[in-house]
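Example record

One chain of 442 residues, shown exactly as stored in the release files.
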Amino acid sequence: MTDAQQIVEEPPEALPVQCIGVDGEDYLVAAGDLAALAAVIGARTNPLSALPAGNANEDRKAQLAREFAQMPDAHRQRLAIALGVLGAPAKVAMLHHTIADEVVSRGMLAWSVSIPDQIVFLAHAGPVGRISFWPPIGLCGSFAKILAAEGKLSDDRIGYKVPLGAVVVFLAILDQLRAMRLHSTLTHSLPSTLFSPAEIADRLKDASAEDFRWPLNFLDKVMPGLAAKFTPADIALAFEDLVKAELIEVVMEAGPTSRYELSLAGKGIADEVLHEVSKLALSVCDQHPDGRFGYDITLWIRGPFHLFFFAMSGKDGVIAAVDSEEFEQLVNRSLAPPPTPAAPAEEKPAPKVQREAAPPTPASWYLSRDGKSEGPYDEAALKKMLEGMPPETLVWSEGSPDWISARDAGLVATPGSVTCPRCRTKANAGIRFCGECGGPIK
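Predicted structure tokens for this chain:
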């Protein structure tokens, strides 16, 4: 697929008579048949599998097998690769985007280390799934078109680094204010600008409702259940963080029924978000060397004059307005292929020789750089090499079960400092976003 704009087109509502359709370089398969087709061709799956569950019967499976066998060799091989990547990806993402109230699309992205220059995209609308291959630069270009990121953007520097919970609660506040504006339109009254933690708690409980017009409901589709997990204590803490960030202000203290309103800065963001042009949400998941899963969630909202970036990673969050260069940098980071450090080759033990006792040799360490294993090094040499490298750099020592970060291994000192390219504020090395302006640290 070469036309980046095609990402906004929805798949056809129905397949032709056959089970497997071909549309140019794309493949059309009923969503309920994908898992069965993958099993027919022997594709393996892993915990990150992007294949939707299906219930194809034996006759359907036989028909899928026949049609797959009758495909031209080039198409058969290409479809098999796509199903293999979707079934056992090294990294996966859920994508959701809208343009005004006319285009709505959801899909899955899957990466494999075997084809690092391509991303397999599974879009589905109704019963049909469309499978296509995208180069990262093509997807980045499509995202830019959806969000009009290449158009005129304000030069205002808006950025806040807050905990993840504060980002989610702030989106719930924006939804609450939008609801009050709609109510005032229907009743021909002035909209209220006040809100309480109790009202926001109710808004968070409704985050899973199917309504793509609301930022919080829209975000829930790429990270289901995130908002519903918030307790009253979580909400109270998020309100405190938003007050500290000067995004909201307290009007009346009364516990859960305390009344708050947006600050001047918060109103500036709200006015843009509540008059959005388009939005795009992306939830990226990969498996760390220690077996845990990591999630990076981003929500992009294009307002009349700004492109806003809401990011959630681990316990951290960012609310910022970005320019086109920062947008491209952040999207390319999300779309980058996953690094996979190679396991160090086993060394054959040297023959035992009778000799006088000698001091023990330093432990052998290996370093992961650009997805490749380097080493062995003794500890002193490795510490020297790690100077200036991110403290999250993966290392492995003989006898250790898994790769761990250099920081966790105790091989790096307290992080030094870096300078934010946007506001020139000093920050600890290794962080992704500036704590002052929320901009990305390059």
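Notes: The radius of gyration is 25 Å.
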